[in-house]
Structures are given as structure tokens and as C-alpha cells.
Fold these 3 entries.
Entry 1:
Amino acid sequence: MAKIDQLSGSKVRIEIEVSAEQFEHGLAHSFEAIKEDVEVKGFRKGKVSRKVFEQHYGVESLYEEAINHVLQETYIGAVTENNLEVVAQPKIDLDITKVEQGKGFTYVAEVAVKPVVTLGEYKGLSMPKQSTEVKEEQIETELQKLLEQNAELVLKEEGTLENGDTAIFDFDGYVDGEPFEGGKSENYELAIGSGQFIPGFEEQMIGMALGEEKDLNVSFPEEYQAENLKGKDAIFKVKLHEMKVRELPVMSDEFVKDLEKEDINTVEELKADTVKKLEESVEAQNKSARVDFAVSEATKNASYELPEEMIEEEKNRLVDNVKQQAKQYNLELDTYLQFSGVTKEDFEANLLKDAARSISYNLVVEAIGKQEEITATEEEREVKFEEIAKQYNMGIEQVKAAIQAYAVDSEIIYAKTIDFLVESIVFED
């Protein structure tokens, strides 16, 4: 038997009565879990009766496992019977001194539940009209990128090294007058201005002539990955062997043909294709902006209470995602953050904001879907199953066995609700 008290919009107090019979069932379960390993003098291992066990060890030795078993069963039962959507582990309050064989007991569970969302205005939201124009400068920029992607490096035989040139050189580094691991290389190729080397290195090479030798005085950053070099002053002896410059091709029909793009053989056709792709990009950006606007405005207009437990759980999920990204580079999280130029404090703070925003959006969109009675059809469900099967190279029946229909329905309803919100936007002139 359970009594439910709503403590807030996102937290409930459940008072649960455990009968003497339920506790006895828990004691029996506890004994069954250990009896195979029980040893009592005069009995074969695993053949001791519960009565004999209690005479030697006391019934209290079964309490911990019995209580855990009973709490789990009765708590889940109370949650299910009362249709509670819990979002975190409960906090249990139980006076264990009142637990006694042959008697029932009462305990209290406080738990965060999915908050009640009170919707505000969400249909017909007013948004500034979006521009769909593709400007000539954008087209030229894209064409220029193509030229630069197909540039060739050619020798520069006169003048001095400039920013943007590529240098082929030897370098030999010293810290405290001693060479260090990784500080020496021959015929190294470096694009000056790329920022690949530590601050000051590339800048001091600018102005060097072919065959020139020069000492570069630099300092390793405090956050440098090699522990023995952090914050250290260093001297690099360099010798410049070659200089190269990037030579761009000329935009022509011949150049376009060399790109080997399907059905594109002339400059005009390339421009038309570029315009088409830019228009598609603009529409994708506009659609994304419409989605962000509709969901964020609907969320601002709604009222709800986010439980901290829910935010923390989502934050932990986001942290795990970043850890997986770091793992792809064989890095620990702290090292990955250093390379990303983000402090642990900022990382944690940003994730908390992201977690709260993500949960808020999901709750509000879900509430709108229910309010508008948006559902998933059998046809839409089948299409979704087929998409998943194709994505993971699985059979339809395998997918259906692995993923419950309600999970697929939730995804479909979420997407349809987003479409509903976006389609209802009213654009200002």
C-alpha cells in the first residue's frame, strides 16, 4: 500500500507500507541467495536449512538483502500502480531499528518525476522574414575556394619568405642548451602562417632568404602537451632550403572539365550548380533557424520546474559523449579539453546549460504534441523501422525486436510536432 504526496511540480513523496508477509518473502529470498555457500559444522555445504542457519547466524544476518529486495519490489510496484514517470533514483528514508521479523514496516521514498508543463503561446509565433537571396559575393567566394583547393605549389626562386609561403627547412631545437626529443628534423615542410608550430616560430622565419641560417628564440606555452617543455624558453637553429608559393589555376571551361563533376563541363554550368547548392544551404540554415526560434519561444512561454536530478543525468550523458570523442583521439578528457582550449570549469558550466536547455525543449515539445493530439501512424512507424534497418544494416524484424514501438513513435511524434510549430510561424513583413 502506498500514499503519494506531491512535494512540488517535479518531486513526490511516496509512503509505502510493507506487510509482515512481504518481509517474510524477502527473508526467504535472502536465504535462497546465499544457501549454496552456507557452511555449518555437521552439515554439508549448501544443505543447511534456514532454521539451522538462523540458529547459528541469527535472522538479522538476512536483513540487508531481504530489505533491499522488498524495497525494490514495493517501490517499483508503487511507481507502476500510480503511473509515476520517475526521472531519477529515489532517496529512501527507513528506520532500520523498527524492522523486525514477523512484523511489517513503513518507509518513505522521495523521487524526482517528470515535471508538469503548463504551455503558453506556441502557435502562430511571429518571426522576422528570412532572406533567401544568394549574393554574387557568395558565388565568387565558393568559386575561389575551388581554385584554392586545386592550387599547386611551385618553387619560389627569388625574394624572401612571406606569410602564406611554404618553407622546406631543417631545424634543431635546444632547451637549456640541450637538444630534446622531437626537436630536430630535416627538409620539414611548413605553411608559414598555418600556426602549426609554437607561437613566434613561423613569424620569425618571415623574411628569410634561400640558404639562410637563423636562430629563433621562442617559448613553449604553459599548456604544452610535453610536460618537460611547458613554459620553457628554447632556441631553434633553422636553415631554409626551399620556398614554395601556391599557384591558383585560371577559372576556365578546361579547369571545370578537370574537376570531373558529373554533368558540369563549363564555367556557366559550374556557376549554376554553385548557385543551386548555395540556395539549398540557405534554405537549410533558414529551416534550422525556424526550428530554433519556434522551440525556444514556445519553451520561454511555458512554465515548468526542472528537477536537478534530471539535469545532472543529462549532463552526465553529454560528458560521456565528449569522453567518447576524446577516446577516438586516444586522449583523456582533461587533455582533450586542454587541446580544445576549454577549462574544466567552463566545460562543466556549459554542459549544465546545454543539459537544462535540451531537457526543457524536449519537455515542452512533448507537451505540445499531447496538446495537439499528434500521433504516429502505422505507415510512419514502418518507414522509421526501415530507415533504422538500412542505417545499421539489419533486418526489419531484428530492428523491431531490438527497439520498442513506443520509442520509435516518440521520435516520430517529436519530429511531427516540430514541423507543426514551424509551419504555424507567422513571418513579419
Entry 2:
Amino acid sequence: MDLSLTEEQIMIQDMARKFADSELAPVAAQLDETRDQSLFLKNLAQLNALGFMGLNIKAEYGGVEAGSVAFSLAITELARACASTAVTTSVTNMVAEVIQAVGNDEQKSKYLPKICSGEYRAGGFCLSEAAAGSDPAGMKTQAVKDGDDYLISGSKIYITSGSFADVFVVWAVTDLAAKKGKGISCFIVEAGTAGMTIGKSEEKMGQKASPTNEVHFDRCRVPASAMMGAENKGFGVAVGELAGGRIGIGSLALGIGLAALDYAKDHIVERKQFGQSLSNFQGLQWTLAERYTEMEAARLLLMQAAYTKDQGQPFGMAASMAKLFAAEKANKACYDALQLMGGAGYIREYPLERMARDVRVTSIYEGTSEIQKVIIARELLQKI
């Protein structure tokens, strides 16, 4: 694996960093406090104009075609400033990749340019249900054939960007007699389709500016042409795309962790107690050294997973390892960074308490840390 970045990857990383510093960092606290959707959507539109919603989409569909390494670098930089913006960007890219991976030519030509151009403000990934979170194969949402259409009925939960996404990829059971996970299909559903309603935006601990909604389907009629891939073969699509999404969430966690450590590092250099800078105390030095080392290890795991994906090689276990490690260590980084700040870290005037709230969910969504361990162990034991 070549650890050096290409000129294009460096350019995208720099562009993301500059945008995060100039546009996101100044309003991140405001977005967390007010959840101002107009301001949030303005930032997303600017990211769309810069190409960040189609980082791994082919140029013929309006994408940048920069690859997963560039995607990881970009999400990390955005998350340093605003985790809410980073997660919406990550999920929208994941929706686009689903369509690119299994959509037919007509579907790709119709939907991908709208995502990449910003005509669609965001995309929604409708997989999780109330009784099917870590076990999505147990979903209850059904799609029943009705002439040349399908009628989708059921509910999805925890859908990122649900309140303003303009296109959704939706998984539903199409063969009730099939074994668990074997009779599931994937559909494209546009916002506003009759029978589809968006539920409440959840009151969350963190990442508050990015809405998380229930999405309900009541005999929602979609044409058979809305199905992506083969009928009853959609679950494998979800599993594959979740692996790619884990690179995004791991990168997001890394960005939050690095931002927290950078802020705490500056604080202990400037803060004086007992007649000297806090940075002179070995105990605090060691804390910084340990946490930064872990963040660098997380970065390398993410680069390995992204590079492997870009090479067209199996990357599922690498993505799970990277997501597991990055999320857990970023949570630790934020905890220790807040501790290094002392009382100031607990005050909302400073960004550490927001970062500590934002980072917590990274060990939960796109597969909990426990599920990542199950995936990793399964892969390891299959090799015996």
C-alpha cells in the first residue's frame, strides 16, 4: 500500500479543510443550538457545488470520481468543524454509491446527476427499523407486487436527512416465504411519493443539526422500474454499502477526535497553574501522546480500508476494523480532551462539550462497535 497521497487527493483534502474552516467552524455551535435548517442547507448546497456529494461517482454522471481515499480525507476535514454536516455528506455519498453499484443505466442517468449537482439536496438510506436495527435482515417493511407496481408498507427509523432528503433508497421484503435475508429488494423512492410520509425529527444527544427521522410507507406505490438490482437480492447490496459507509463514519469519528485534541492541546499550552504551563506536566503530556498515537493509528486503518476498496478488493473486515477502532478511540480522545480542559471543557461556550456529544454516536450508527466485532470475528474464523 502506497501511503503517499495523489495530487487530486491532496487538493480535495485541502478544499474540504478550507471550506470547514471558513464556512462550517464559525456556525457549528449555532447549528447545534438552533438547528437552523436554512443555514444547514446553504452549507450543503455549497458542498454540492464543490463536488462533495459525488466523490466516488463517475464523471459521466456528474461525479468527481476521486475514490474512497479522497472521500475519507474529505469527511475527516468536514467533521473537524461540524459533525452534522459531515454525516449528511457521508450518507448522501453512500446513497449515490448504492445507485451507481446496482442501478441500471436509466436509473443511474436519472438520479446520480441530480445528487451530484445538488438538485437533490440530500439522500436517505432507509434500512433500519424499530425491530431490525443491528439485525436488518429481520425487517418487516414489505413491497407487494400490484400489476406493474409495488406497494411498500412499513416504517423505517433513524433516517439521516429524512426531513429534507429528496431521494431515498429503501429496502423491503418482497418474498415473504423466503428465508430470513433472502427475500429483500431495494427500491428508489423520491420524496413526495404518495403513501410516503416523514415522521418527527428525533431529539438527539449530538449531531443535532442533521435531522434524524422516521419514514413511513402506507401502500406507497412505486413502479417496478424503481427496483434496483434483482428482485429478492437486495440484502447483499445493503451489506456491501454499509461497509463503505463505515469508512465514512470512521473518518467522521477521526475528525471529531482530532479537533478535540487540537483544542485541548492549545489550551494546556496557554493555561498556567502552579506557576507554569500545564503542558509542562508529564501526566498531561502522556495523555496527549497516547491519544494522538491512537488517532494516527485510526487514520492508517481508514486509509487501508479505503485504499483496498479503491482497488476493487474485499474490504469489509478492514472497514469494520477501521470503524471500530476510530469510533472507540475518538470517544476516548474527546473524553480526555474535555478532562484536559477542566471546568471550561464542560461549559457550552467552548466546543469540547459539543464534540463529546457528537462523537458518541459514532460507535452506534453504521453498525455498533459490538456488531463490528462480530463481523471481524466471523471473517477471522472463516479463514481457519
Entry 3:
Amino acid sequence: MLKRILAAGVGVWVGAINVPASHAAESALDTVVDRGVLRCGVVLDSPPSGYRNARNEPDGFDVAYCRDMAQVMGVKADIIETPASNRIPALVAKRIDVLIASTTGTPQRGLTIAFSRPYMSYATIIISRRGSGISAFADLADKRLGGVAGTTNEALLKKEMAGSWKGKGATYTAYGGDNEAFLALEEGKVDAILQAVGVFKTLQDSGMFPDFVNAGSVPLNDLVSIGVRRDDVQFLNWVNQFIWSQNVSGRFAQLYRTYFGDGPLPDLSTNTVSP
């Protein structure tokens, strides 16, 4: 069965993995090829990574990445809308085969699922309303803050609230998705949220939230990875090889400029990660 993957030109390392035959058949790699469909979990309320276009169809960088992966495997892509807070549970429960949803691979999350090498990197900024008086990360110490539950942005804010901001008055409200967080900020329920700079640019271009402003940078450069089930070594190695192929072929650059615009490509190495 793996010969069909190898023929696609990116599965060079798959056949070299020393996995007992009794476990090989359990890999999602074989399951997906046999089924003829790759089920990708994607967050669709976080443009330009994932969203619904004017025809109400899934679109965005992560959606295109999934479709590229399916094409290489010789199968159809099935985009499964997956809220940010349900990304890992959906993979564990086998409702999806792979998670392509701008997910940061942390040691804690690695106890539950396996993460690939980074396939994208996001610089993070503060989004607030015009006239809020917020212009730097330190200004958040006494503000009402919001974010999506279970994200690295949430973890950073909670860390600061328990550390250098402790006792200064900051509060935090968790939401189920980016749309809820955007609405909370628009309605004045929170003073600021953290978000990828590419998402903010998309919001600006859409004109949906004219009072939102970039209120400063955040000490977080988010390298995100593709997730597979924790014990699926074959699929993980294949995904890593696929990401490498996207990068060296120029396809990553093409997708980035399609969805994020011109400018320097993000650095996918750990050189950009703040300690």
C-alpha cells in the first residue's frame, strides 16, 4: 500500500521507518489512501488561515495546505470545520485524520498528540479599539483581556497575570473561537485580544471592524505545526517530508503570498522563538 504513496514523490522516508508489521496497518496513512479521502480539521473563523469565502466554501492558507496534501496522496480533501477549542479532541476521537489548524506544538499538547515540524509562523500583536490608550504589551497589566480557550495566546496572558501583572487588575475571559473574541472586543466586553498580524490585516481589509487597531507587538512568535495521532509514527514522518517538499518546491511561498500578501516569508526555524 505504501508504494502508492511513494509513487507520489514525497514519501521517500515512509518505507524506511522501522515499524512492526502488526502496527503498520493502523497508520492513518494507509487508512486515508484506502478510503480515498483525507479528513483535515481546520479552524474556519481565523482568516486568512481558515475562513468561508463569498460562496460559503472553506478557504484560506490551511485549507489550501490540506488540499495540497490530499492531492499528493492521490485522494480527495474533506475540510472538517473544527473550533480552536476542539482541535485536539477531534483528532484523538478520530473525527479527523490530520490537524491543519495553526496549532502550536507545546510539550503539554505533545502528551496527547504528535506534532510535525513547523509549517507556518505567525507574529503576534495586540488588537484593541481605537482610543483605548493601549500601545504596548505592558499596558495590558490592568486591562480586561480576552482570547480563545486553549491557545498559546491565552497561555501567555495567564502566565503574565500570575507573574509580573499579578495584583494589577488584569482580567481574562475565554471564548470558544476567534469570532466570539472579535465580537467581545467590538462590543467593549474586553479591552484587548492577542492575534496573528496576518489575521489583523485580513480584518482591516474586510472593513468589518473599523475601530480595531494594532496596539503593539507581543513577545510571542508562534511556530505552528500539523498534528497527527500520537502513536502514528508513519504518518508523522510522511507529513514532515510533505512540509519539506512544500518549502523547497516554492509552493509554501506561493500559498503565503496568495493569502498573506507580499513581503518576506516567515522564518520556520526556531531562531525566531523568544525564550
